[in-house]
Amino acid sequence: MRKVFFIVGLVLLASIACKHQMVVPGTSTSPIIIANPGTGGGTTSNPSDTVCFNSEVLPLYQSYCASAGCHSAASARSGVVTTDYFNIMKGIRANSPNSSKYYTILFNDMPPRGSPQMTAAQVATIQKWISQGALNTLCMTTTCDSTKTTYSNGISTLFATYCNGCHGVAPGSGNIILGDYTNAKNTGISIKQSFLNDINYAGATAAKNMPPAGKLSSCQILQITKWINNGCPQ
Ligand code: HEC
Asked: Percentage of the chain surpassing pLDDT 70?
């Protein structure tokens, strides 16, 4: 009898232990922390080139798909919302990019023609993330380098990830275009102070908090601040 209790106890313990590690894509909303993306040992829990959902994939869906009137929580066009992991996973099949609707649609109707499109590299990042299991990965180290402060080295990549879904091409939300150097520079110079206020979430109204989905990291804000204060160098 004692033996039976012992075995039952072991099984219970094992199942509790498993629960902490088990990840059910589409249902898990708490992020999986990746300590050292790009330098990991290639293990299952930290492949050396883990795509970080929170910094590499989420901003793309937020910027390119979740603008007001489209797939934001408030508009939810066609029932699709792309503001967070839980909702994005409704259109993703882990390990299977080609049966993931929110991936394959990027080659067809979405974003709509005339709206800013993701680059091939950005789409490839999403594909890789799905192939790696589409986990809610959050990286502790970031690729942000606050010394990269010219448009071609640092700023354009930042804009492409966080801003260009709304500001990539004309007309651009609020008539702001950041997808090419000339337009970005003209904006950075002509509305210098409000630009800086907006990225610090200290603008005239909450509607001018940029990007709307959430404040950039302090490193990223510093990069843009230096770029603008230096006269928006190319
Ligand atoms: C989801 C869409 C969206 C994203 C992503 C976005 N913006 Fe905007 N942006 C808007 C809208 C809409 C306006 C117009 C807001 C208004 O005037 O009330 C705007 C306006 C602005 C303005 C002018 C505001 C002013 O003071 O007149 C700046 C500057 C700006 N955005 C910068 C950025 C930057 C930089 C990023 C990325 C870090 C970004 N935005 C990302 C939608 C977006």
From this structure: 81
